[in-house]
Amino acid sequence: MDVSSVIKTWKTTRFWFLDLANRYDNDQLNVIPHGFNNNLIWHLGHVISVQDSLIYKSTGVSSTLPDELRLKYKPGSRPENVADGTEIDLIKSLLLAQIDWTEKDMAQQLFGPFQERTLSTGYHLGSLEDAFVFNNFHEGLHMGYFMGIKKFV
To answer: Can you tell me the distance from the alpha carbon of 63 to that of 45, in angstroms, rounded to the nearest whole number?
Structure first.
């Protein structure tokens, strides 16, 4: 698979997330508007956590993220407390750093055999390529949620 277009899409989405996040202060990033379950910073942390699971966990490679962050923003989680400035800065930095790490690991052919699984959405991940494609779909969904929440912040 030529992943260049998949990576290009991923980078575009991540740069857009970062640009949008930088328009809000820490208090605004933590607001959970009425009718929503999450806040802006949760969506950023969540896409980072899910990418790690889709790409790294599925290939048997150790996580690139601190365990606390990965678990706090995993699927099914919700904000349980306010993310402080240090956590917000870390999440923002990881939006782009994660791409660099992944590209480097791909170039070094670090990823092992892919562990197939079907996601709760019904989407079957049969290969690393499937995981990259689904990751972009997933991040697009969360961009939509992000755009919806920002109207109320």
So the answer is: 14
